[in-house]
Write a structure and sequence with these properties.
- This protein is an alpha+beta fold and about 475 residues long.
- Helix content is about 30%, strand content about 20%.
- The strands form seven sheets. The chain has a seven-stranded mixed sheet with strand order 17-18-16-15-21-22-23, with helices on both faces.
- The radius of gyration is 21 Å and the shape is globular.
- It starts with a strand and ends in a 7-residue tail after the last helix.
Length: about 475
């Protein structure tokens, strides 16, 4: 009765086996190449990703059911008859459609995307990228004329090739900006806005159930990685929230059976749709650069080992007038400003490497706090907030984060939460009961001066203003 979770992420593909006794075992892990063909462009080879998924499944042996989680907003084009990809995967971090989303916003189109899909106009979401593929690739236009073009997120491509069914689920479809959140169906007006033919999109099916055969087993769950992580954290009741500190920092909170009010801060989305049930909604917000900012600081030579930055002798950098805004790929929730860029502010001749790294960690915490504050303006959040990801192995960061949020944190002890959530949903889809308690250590917040957040807000506004300057634009 072992369940296999395939976690297809931004940098790697992992196969994780979960036994009925609760044992979690990584069966295989394979990294893939990141490609940056032009400034602001980020791509993957779709055939490499699919080959890695196949290898992970083959390495796992016989299993009762399989679950698949995906990158969310990453997308591509392929031939419906042959299944062959005709484009690279355009990754969620890609910014090539910024000019297009800026144009649509200037024309007043954002009112439509927010009211129907719950999403602002941003190149982060799949719709503008899918429209770009059809406009820019002659082969895509030729296949569209022949009725053979498929446009979709990576999960639909994988599922088409693995199961023969060209399908996606509501969580992934809700990240495209093409699905109406009320009906969980593709919206004709949104598709027309972005130039994406409805007939080229995959079918939207529930998150769990019999989703097709893969080898000797069945796919019984398919979901976005962050929603899978929410489930893996044990969050199931309204107001329960988690933050995953990976490449970016992603905040999700469980909503209810009604669509959350759309706005310009946290985004309404789908948490999951279990077979035979109505969708469960959620709120989502993110910080584009979290661990990515820390890894970038390491490549600059600011520190050698992560063990070197587990504690600091000096008081917080913000208390000494030094701030770092981690907008290396722009600002996500609640500002949605792709033109902002990262910066240290308040440096002096006495500023050293450790000070700069300390400010990076603080900046990620302050940005996460901005996201949580925007959530609280829409719905009450319960305590503790559950956190995971590579950065939470740093006790100094966890304490500073708790202080900045003013909330208890549960630092999860589960090393594979995304895969665990995917496996939990796959078990449900296969009719296998599975109930787990949230496990981890509690971090209690300490008082933090309010003017620290005010100082960070000043720094954040400064990088936004600079991003709008004529010499700073792209």
């Amino acid at each position: 009765m072992t369940i296999l979770a395939i976690d297809q992420g931004t940098t790697s593909t992992r196969a994780v086996a979960v036994t009925p006794e609760g044992e979690v075992r990584v069966v295989a892990a394979m990294e893939h190449r990141q490609s940056y063909p032009r400034p602001g462009w980020v791509e993957h080879d779709p055939e490499d990703l699919l080959a890695n998924i196949r290898t992970c499944i083959e390495a796992s042996g016989e299993v009762a059911a399989i679950g698949l989680d995906n990158q969310g907003e990453s997308c591509l084009a392929w031939d419906a008859e042959t299944g062959k990809a005709i484009s690279p995967v355009i990754v969620w971090q890609d910014e090539r459609t910024m000019a297009e989303t800026d144009r649509l916003r200037a024309e007043g189109a954002e009112e439509l995307t927010i009211s129907r899909a719950g999403l602002p106009l941003d190149p982060y979401f799949s719709a503008s990228k899918l429209g770009w593929l059809l406009r820019e690739l002659p082969e895509a236009r030729a296949l569209a004329r022949a009725g053979r073009l498929r446009l979709g997120t990576t999960d639909a491509f994988f599922r088409h090739r693995l199961t023969g069914r060209c399908q996606t689920d509501p969580t992934t479809a809700s990240r495209t900006s093409l699905m109406d959140l009320e009906t969980c169906r593709w919206d004709a007006d949104l598709c027309a806005l972005f130039g994406v033919p409805v007939e080229c999109l995959p079918e939207i099916a529930p998150t769990t159930g019999d989703l097709g055969r893969i080898g000797k087993s069945h796919l019984t769950s398919s979901i976005v990685d962050q929603q899978a992580a929410l489930r893996g954290h044990g969050c199931a009741r309204e107001g329960e929230a988690k933050i995953t500190f990976g490449t970016g920092a992603f905040v999700l909170a469980v909503g209810g059976a009604d669509v959350p009010r759309p706005g310009h801060g946290p985004l309404p989305t789908i948490a999951w749709q279990l077979a035979g049930e109505r969708p469960t909604y959620a709120l989502e917000g993110g910080v584009y650069s979290a661990a990515a900012a820390l890894n970038w600081a390491r490549t600059l030579g600011l520190f050698d080992s992560f063990d070197d930055i587990m504690d600091f002798e000096a008081p917080p950098a913000i208390s000494r007038g030094l701030a770092f805004v981690p907008s290396l790929a722009g600002l996500a929730c609640p500002h949605w400003d792709r033109r902002a860029r990262g910066a240290w502010l308040g440096m002096g001749l006495d500023t050293g490497k450790a000070d700069l790294v300390q400010a990076v960690l603080e900046g990620v915490a302050f940005r996460a706090a901005e996201v949580i504050t925007s959530f609280e303006a829409m719905t009450p959040l319960g305590d503790p907030v559950s956190i995971d990801g590579g950065m939470v192995r740093n006790p100094w960061f966890c304490q500073f984060l708790a202080d900045t949020l003013g909330r208890e944190l549960l630092v999860s002890e589960e090393p594979e939460l995304t895969a665990l959530g995917t496996a939990d949903l796959a078990a449900l889809g296969a009719g296998i009961a599975n109930d787990r308690a949230r496990r981890g250590r509690i971090v209690t917040p300490r008082p933090q001066p309010d003017h620290w957040k005010e100082a960070f807000a000043l720094a954040r506004r400064a990088v936004q203003d600079f991003g709008q300057a004529p010499t700073a634009g792209r």
